[in-house]
């Protein structure tokens, strides 16, 4: 335990310096009701897992999305917003609708990655029901295949305004 404490003390802070906060006009209108923090339920609607790796990095100690008020939660009933990755497969279309319905109002949806935005490389595949916006209303898109952790953090900061 003492060795761990020493290591923490020697390592110090590893988070990237915080860039300036996003201008208020970049905030989706309904995000202004969030009051500076957003609780997010992640839904993998059919991702290759590349976007999940980058989301993991965005919430890790280097990019540290939580310091801007964004937090992942375990239930849609505890969430303000859905963080959806991947193209929506036929099997995930209904679970995504149900998860959306379980989020209390006012709710937001963030489409993370090109598959979630436009079906990306999976466009036209037989098991694909559509992009996230074809199934539930989308408030914010984060482009990239996969998006970089700093782009995910920048997108989430548009929700929190911090
Ligand atoms: S956007 Fe790229 S990394 Fe993300 S799920 Fe699609 S193929 Fe994978």
Automatic annotation (TrEMBL):
Database matches in Pfam families: Oxidored_q6
Domain of life of the source: Bacteria
InterPro entries: Complex_I_20kDa-like (IPR052375), NADH_UbQ_OxRdtase-like_20kDa (IPR006137)
Co-factor requirement: [4Fe-4S] cluster
GO molecular function: 4 iron, 4 sulfur cluster binding; metal ion binding
UniProt KW keywords: 4Fe-4S, Iron, Iron-sulfur, Metal-binding, Ubiquinone
NADH:ubiquinone oxidoreductase-like 20kDa subunit domain boundaries: 48-159
Entry keyword annotation includes Metal-binding: yes
Family: Belongs to the complex I 20 kDa subunit family.
Name of this protein: NADH ubiquinone oxidoreductase 20 kDa subunit
Organismal lineage: Bacteria, Bacillati, Actinomycetota, Actinomycetes, Nakamurellales
């Amino acid at each position: 335990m003492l060795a761990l404490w020493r290591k923490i003390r020697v390592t110090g802070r590893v988070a990237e310096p915080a860039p300036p906060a996003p201008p208020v006009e970049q905030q989706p209108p309904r995000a202004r009701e969030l009051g500076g923090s957003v609780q997010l339920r992640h839904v993998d609607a059919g991702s290759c897992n590349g976007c999940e790796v980058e989301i993991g990095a965005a919430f890790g100690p280097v990019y540290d999305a939580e310091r801007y008020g964004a937090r992942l939660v375990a239930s849609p009933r505890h969430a303000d917003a859905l963080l959806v990755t991947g193209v929506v497969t036929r099997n995930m279309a209904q679970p995504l609708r149900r998860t959306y319905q379980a989020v209390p109002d006012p709710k937001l949806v963030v489409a993370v990655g090109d598959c979630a935005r436009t079906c990306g490389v999976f466009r036209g595949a037989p098991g694909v029901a559509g992009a996230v916006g074809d199934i539930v209303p989308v408030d914010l898109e984060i482009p990239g295949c996969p998006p970089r952790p700093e782009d995910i953090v920048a997108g989430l900061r548009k929700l929190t305004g911090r």
